[in-house]
């Protein structure tokens, strides 16, 4: 009963921080320039804009851009998601209720079911859907004409989209991670909207721990604001930001508790690897998918972890980040594989060498 209002407050805050037009959208300069041309040309023709596909990691602004597209086209916005559409009838109901020029935002479009996806092909291309009414011998196929609309699809895994669907989008854009300077602009803008007094050094400290993602920047800013309000005079300085983020277990490179748990297990329990993903997940007490989809992408991008055919391996940067010394290179080299009779090739080892690595 206490968590619901807090969740609603956070969502209201996030909505207030979203820019309302392309001029207020920070970062993604190339995407903004291309999208601005698409929307301006459509307005000059008094036509609906082409279908738009936005791909990229979570928190980079895909939903915000969908809202901006609807605002720039002065059209209503309908929001749904791929997991919510698992049957063609559900998609047909959504499409049939659209008005002319409306923008349909389909988040996580790669998770839509294949039958619904095939229905979407015809709707995107010909603004028409074919539905079957009745069953058995009494079944009748009907064609439902749709008003022109703009589909904005968002996905975090563009590789899972089948080519027929991807090719039907008139404009595709990939959202890149933000540079620290861009995140500082995001933080200063959000601080103004939240009424938070922040020094440039404080914004720099938060930006450096935001993992290149504006959503994380805004979340950390709110937590730093709380810390500054309770323990200081409300002004966010570098020292206050560093102390606040230390309380919330976000280190100087943006690693959180799960990231450090993965690195600690990899380095201290398995000597830096290689180790399998399932074994690593058990060691940190998390699900395999959580480690693979939440922690690993950032660790790989930061150069702290590498994926190899033999398993996960820590890089020298990981040892340095945790202040540990990497183990020396083993002097023993694994012998060649066994002969057909099952015995190892003893000729590959000097006389007197044991049949395994030294203790």
Automatic annotation (TrEMBL):
Ranges for region Small ATPAse domain (RuvB-S): 179-249
Compositional bias (Basic and acidic residues): 340-350
Keywords annotated in UniProt: ATP-binding, Cytoplasm, DNA damage, DNA recombination, DNA repair, DNA-binding, Helicase, Hydrolase, Nucleotide-binding
Annotated DNA binding sites: 288, 307, 312
Name of one Pfam family that matches: WHD_RuvB
InterPro entries cross-referenced by the UniProt entry: AAA+_ATPase, AAA_lid_4, DNA_helicase_Holl-junc_RuvB, P-loop_NTPase, RuvB-like_N, RuvB_wg_C, WH-like_DNA-bd_sf, WH_DNA-bd_sf
Protein name: Holliday junction branch migration complex subunit RuvB
Organism phylogeny: Bacteria, Bacillati, Actinomycetota, Actinomycetes, Kitasatosporales
């Amino acid at each position: 009963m206490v968590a619901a209002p807090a969740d609603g407050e956070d969502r209201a805050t996030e909505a207030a921080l979203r820019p309302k037009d392309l001029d207020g959208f920070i970062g993604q300069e190339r995407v903004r320039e291309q999208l601005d041309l698409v929307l301006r040309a459509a307005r000059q023709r008094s036509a609906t804009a082409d279908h738009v596909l936005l791909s990229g990691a979570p928190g980079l602004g895909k939903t915000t851009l969908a809202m901006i597209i609807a605002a720039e086209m002065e059209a209503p916005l309908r929001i749904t998601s791929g997991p919510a559409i698992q049957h063609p009838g559900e998609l047909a109901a959504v499409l049939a209720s659209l008005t002319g020029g409306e923008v349909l935002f389909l988040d996580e479009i790669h998770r839509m079911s294949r039958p619904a996806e095939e229905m979407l092909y015809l709707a995107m291309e010909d603004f028409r859907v074919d539905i079957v009414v009745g069953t058995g011998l009494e079944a009748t196929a009907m064609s439902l004409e749709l008003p022109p609309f703009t589909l904005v699809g968002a996905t975090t895994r563009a590789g899972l989209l089948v080519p027929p669907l991807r090719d039907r989008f008139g404009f595709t854009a990939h959202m890149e991670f933000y540079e620290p300077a861009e995140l500082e602009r995001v933080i200063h803008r959000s601080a103004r909207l939240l009424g938070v007094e922040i020094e440039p050094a404080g914004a720099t400290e938060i930006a450096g721990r935001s993992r290149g993602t504006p959503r994380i920047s805004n979340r950390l800013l709110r937590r730093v604001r709380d810390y500054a309000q309770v323990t200081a005079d409300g002004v966010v300085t570098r020292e206050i930001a560093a102390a606040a983020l230390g309380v919330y277990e976000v280190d100087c490179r943006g690693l959180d508790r799960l990231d450090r748990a993965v690195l600690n297990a990899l380095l201290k329990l398995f000597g830096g690897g290689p180790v399998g993903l399932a074994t690593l997940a058990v060691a940190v007490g998390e699900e395999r998918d959580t480690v693979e989809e939440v922690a690993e992408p950032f660790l790989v991008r930061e150069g702290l972890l590498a994926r190899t055919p033999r398993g996960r391996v820590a890089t020298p940067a990981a040892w340095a980040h945790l202040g540990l010394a990497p183990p020396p290179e083993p002097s023993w080299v694994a012998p060649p594989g066994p002969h057909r009779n099952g015995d190892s090739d003893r000729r590959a080892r000097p006389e007197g060498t044991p049949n395994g690595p030294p203790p």
